[in-house]
Amino acid sequence: MLAGEQVLVEAENGALTLTTQRIRVRSQHFGTAYFGSVMLDQVASCEVARRSYPVFLVIAACAVLFGILVGFWTREPGTGISIGVLVAVGCLLAYLLTRRMTLAFASAGATLHIDFRMSLASAIEFIDAVEAARADYVKGAGYGT
Predict the structure, then answer these.
(1) What are the angstrom distances between the C-alpha of 122 and each of 10, 55, 89, 110, 117?
(2) Which of 14, 52, 68, 103 could form a cystine bridge with 114, CB 3.0-4.6 A?
(3) Where exactly are the structural domains of the chain?
(4) pLDDT tens across 74-127, in order?
(5) DSSP letters spanning 5-59
(6) Would you say 125 and 89 are in contact if contact means Cβ atoms under 8 Å apart?
(7) For residues 102 and 5, is the Cβ–Cβ distance under 8 A?
(8) What are the CA-CA distances from residue 119 to residues 8, 16, 67, 100, 133 (Å)?
(9) With contact defined as beta carbons under 8 Å apart, do 80 and 71 qualify?
(10) Interior CA angle at 23 toward 50 and 7, to 5°?
(11) What H or E segment, with its residue span, contains residue 102?
(12) Is the dihedral of CA 77, 78, 80, 86 positive or negative?
């Protein structure tokens, strides 16, 4: 921590930290590690986006329909529908497991991209906190006065 720096908000079990002077990101997944830091006076913009793959939902619906058709063709509706439902459940799980919320904080030199599982409301709250902290930091440093 820098002199006089205090933690304002921590999210995602400490992987995303907002202090009175900077934003810090730490992540480690499956053998990869990432660390980034941007000083608050360098933050140019904040962005939040949700990424998902709705193609999994389309495949799930097609699997159920295909299962129903196979059941009617083979005159064993239980088997066809069961297979269709199993594939659909797998696709639904894939859809849910691949949804991500991405936060981005751009500065003059770099952009911090934070890919976490948080709700849209939580992401917006974090961005609000960053904007408020940046305004306080800039005001306290005497910029624009």
Answers:
(1) 11, 26, 28, 23, 10
(2) 103
(3) 7-48+102-141, 55-97
(4) 777 677 788 888 999 999 999 998 888 888 888 888 888 887 777 888 888 888
(5) --EEEEETTTTEEEESSEEEEEEEETTEEEEEEEEGGGEEEEEEEEE--THHHHH
(6) no
(7) no
(8) 19, 14, 34, 9, 21
(9) yes
(10) 115
(11) strand 100-107
(12) positive
Tell me which residue of 45, 47, 48, 49 sits closest to 106, measured CA to CA: 45
Class of domain 7-48+102-141: mainly beta
In this predicted model, what pLDDT tens digit does every residue of 80-91 receive, in sequence order?
788 888 999 999
Rounded to whole angstroms, the Cα distance separating 60 from 89 reads 7
Tell whether the model's pLDDT for residue 48 goes beyond 90. no
* Spatial separation of the C-alpha atoms in residues 129 and 67, rounded to whole Å: 49
Q: Which residues pair with 103 in a beta bridge?
A: 48, 114
Burial 68-85 (b: 16+ CB within 10 A, else e): eebbeeeeeeeebbebbe
- Cβ(91)–Cβ(53) below 8 Å: no
Beta bridge partners of 18: 9, 23
Amino acid identity of residue 1, one-letter, is M
